[in-house]
């Protein structure tokens, strides 16, 4: 589920609703409504779990991708799925729900019920499980399927023509996407979907026939099979998939992304748990400023009312069943459950033309402590209630689609038309969104779209590396954003741009997607007191490429050609020794691949590395594999580098990022060390700590072993946990100061040391930390900018006035010395801020290879 703080309902609209906490124990049906408690975050909002993901899963997730796209085959598309081995440990079994190994046989049986059900495998999860997409629709010939594709493409790519098309009005099938089980231990959406599919497969009534004749219904049966089996929120890599849509680091997320692009749903349900009563979006402020929010709110609120009515009509009560009445956050709460960041499924889908999108939180908790402590009969009673609630939400949505298909498609066309023509957004108001009560100035969020963005090639007005621009362009394309490239130099808005520049024309159907990824974002600290999750995420600021915003001007006559992929960066000079920059994670990965092969690499005085001419063959292989560029050099290099083995007590996102850069990483934690971890046998060269390692909680032998290791090895620490270990080990003489733990976003920084050399002047923070009172030998590598360092996000002082951005301004954010580097920023957060990754890599190499950071400079 998405967890939030509860706040009073909008007083002019409805009396405050009592929300049972997601973690409360409802041992008897009547207990649920007896002492309602506010909803709270499920543990810390900050991801501070120690990572345990297997390396094989990380490798699979880096290389796997989904294959769901457009096809010209008709429907049904039957296939017989091979069975999975029976798994008695599947956590679904205790709840009386469908275990993963029973899904394939169930889908085979559903396909045999008639000619309405089709199954596709969209990819595999990080843990290797198949991902199933079920389509339910009336049969289509190949010719009819091609016509549907043509109409879908017309809606996005020629929306003005689509708005006038009688064929679309008459024949286009409204796409609906039901996403289930994205959080693995929120199970029941899967079972509800299977029940609804079975009903649709065999129903003979006129309403069902009409629905399937005019709709395609897509069911992602379990978005997170790894978590379903294991009973965990996250997938096998430890990722919360409902936070990954901007980055798309995980194969499951990429599969869902491709469904959104390929199927172009007008309506989406994302089925979660557990909030009592059932929570049905739309959300509280702030609302994403890049949406066509008037269209989104109009349709989402109307569908929410239907779902609310259907859920309440099931007849569950607090006294009898422990089930509270359903709630709609937009109507019933002031803040705390927002749709600001596009990291959640419904909010991300809005940028692909979804005009009604909802997180639905079913009511009765069966996970976490409830799963372990409640008796099985009570767990199964709750699961049955939850399945019925999810089913009611699905069926109400299908009724809404059948009744309002024309309006939904018309509004989807309008989303794309506004983007293609550069039309202004329409602010929400009682006049522009009639029928939605309580709209006020707190709900109005719009932005000014630039005319274009320009990403210059490497070396043009920037020293940023080519791989960053290449990665960013490919990511934009993967998200359905149109990108062009200049065939020769040109001028735009009075400024000259070099040939080879990438240009994102913001007069395009998915301008909202382009802008939400590339723009700096906004400081919304003054708008609301609390945010649900991250509030800043800019790829333009954090991914390492130079991104130039062009506010106005004309692209008419510009020498631009559409691109389907970024131009390769790969280059290795034919003669001489080679220099490799270390300003991008791909360059770090290339370096680590060379070190694994035993290539004698030496440091360069300017922060890069020198590869001898004798290793040109290995350099060419690394350049091709990682799409990086080497340059010729006459530098001799300084100290030699060697392959590193990193022991890491870090979050899953950090572990994934380290392995993405090619580091050999062994996860450790307090429990692992207390179990007798053998530091000598591990071969570890350096320890990286940010989560899950508490020096005070170690046994005496484990503490002694760790202290002995640190006596001769380097330490990299991040956040409060890293700073605490530094203090316990007596390393750097600094005073860590913790900011507001809820603060997060993009910040301005000033880089001043070898570790942060050539790093972007933007960083990312979550629960920011800074360092004061540096003692002898402590070097400031980076500082928060003076003034207000926050570029975008939400960062307020604490109640006593401390912990805010003004307190952090000008203070050290990264410090080093005595084979130690400490970060107060989040340079690897959820595998996202790619441009910051090399800071961590340099820190690891520095502390592992040098007697002190000062000597390394």
From TrEMBL:
SMART domains: Zn_pept. Residues 96-397 form the Peptidase M14 domain. GO terms for cellular component: extracellular space. Residues 1-34 form the signal peptide. The active site is at residue 369. Pfam families: Peptidase_M14. Keywords: Hydrolase, Metalloprotease, Protease, Signal, Zinc. GO terms for biological process: proteolysis. The keyword Zinc applies. Residues 31-93 are annotated as: Disordered. Its cofactor is Zn(2+). Residues 64-73 have a biased composition (Polar residues). GO terms for molecular function: metallocarboxypeptidase activity; zinc ion binding. InterPro entries: Peptidase_M14 (IPR000834). Belongs to the peptidase M14 family. This is Peptidase M14 domain-containing protein. It comes from Streptomyces paradoxus. The lineage of its organism: Bacteria, Bacillati, Actinomycetota, Actinomycetes, Kitasatosporales.
